[in-house]
Amino acid sequence: MLRSMFAAISGLRGHQIMMDVIGNNIANVNTVGFKSGRVNFQDILSQTVHGATAPQGGLGSINPAQIGLGMTVAGIDVLQTQGNLQSTGKTTDMAIQGDGFFIESDGSGTYYTRDGAFDIALDGSLANPASGMKVQGWQADAAGNIDITQPLTNIVIPIGQRTTALATSSVTLNGNLDAGAANATTVPTTMTVFDSLGIAHSVKVTFTKTAANTWDWVATKDPADSGITIAQVAADPTATPPVLPVNNGTLTYSTSGIETSSTGTLSFTFPDGATATTPSINMTQMTQFSGTSQPAGQANGFTSGTLVTFAVGDAGQLSGVYSNGQTQVLGEIALANFLNSAGLLRAGQNNFAATSASGAANVGVAATGGRGTVTTGALEMSNVDLATQFTGMITAERGFQANGRVITTSDEMLQELVNLKR
Hints:
Layout: H1 2-27, E1 37-43, E2 46-50, E3 65-68, E4 71-78, E5 85-87, E6 94-97, E7 101-105, E8 110-113, E9 119-120, E10 126-127, E11 134-139, E12 153-154, E13 170-178, E14 186-194, E15 200-211, E16 214-221, E17 248-253, E18 259-262, E19 280-289, E20 296-299, E21 307-312, E22 317-322, E23 327-337, E24 345-348, E25 351-353, E26 362-365, E27 373-376, E28 378-380, H2 386-419
Parallel strand pairs: 13-19
Antiparallel strand pairs: 1-4, 2-3, 5-28, 6-27, 7-8, 7-11, 7-23, 8-25, 9-10, 11-12, 11-23, 13-20, 14-15, 15-16, 16-17, 17-18, 21-22, 22-23, 23-26, 24-25
Helix pairs in contact: 1-2
């Protein structure tokens, strides 16, 4: 009698733990990045009434006879299944589609999470505003290069940071010059160049047809622009070494309308104190066909700008957008995955910690090594299925009720045994 009561007590205890897990799952049904738990039961010791025997003589084998002594909780699994993604429209919100975890640090420890509700902290770092933990990854250098072989560091997004200016180093001219134009026809185009201080200057390039398939060009400044000086230097092929024309030259075409040769270089000086420049000039994309002349010039370089916003790619790469229209890579968010992600230890605040069961974190870039992709402007919702939880709740309730009935029945049987003495 007592054995049945103790077995039923173990059943009560196990089903109470099952209800605790279900209650925690339901409580976190709207927790971002939450992973539901599941209880597994197993039986415990069994009392052997008699053992098994092999066949002997005319008798067959005899099976063992055992009485079970109850049950226990075998384990509480964490179901690392994908949750639904919910669009938020906030740039700093991120979700992982697939396997992997964001990596966070409080300065002394490393944690892993699926909760991508991040924001930019006061020091410019990307962090979880609820816990203050900072997102880990690789920061780009001044040129936008990332070295993922370096140790992880805090990701910093320096909103408002000003970039240096870039002086124009190359000019490309493209478009068409009318093959049917008369000699002495002039065709102008204007482009913008930048000095080393980031000041924009207007340069006018004028093409003049001098003969069939031949156009001379000359670069001059905008009369209203007093900050640039464009001096003309004539060619001198007799000099040693020969002197090339500066800020002017000749463009020659074949009978098929394709540029065959061009001469001339560019050289700009700036009275405002900026460094003089000698940008290269490329006219190989200019054609000469019948039709309207439409040359266009484009120069590299830009003025100084400030970081105003950023974007995140599928691979977790952060690109800054500056007020001068330029973009530059700021860094890359690191993701981690595990051989046994169910072996991770819940550490609170939607975080997990690595254990000997989970194995060491395999850190790398998103969309590689089995790691998922990063979706920006969205969050991963809890993977709790309410239908499953309520069904489990009914199962736990009935299991608890049945074990309680076993105790009641065993008590009645004991009472009947005591009454035999009367």
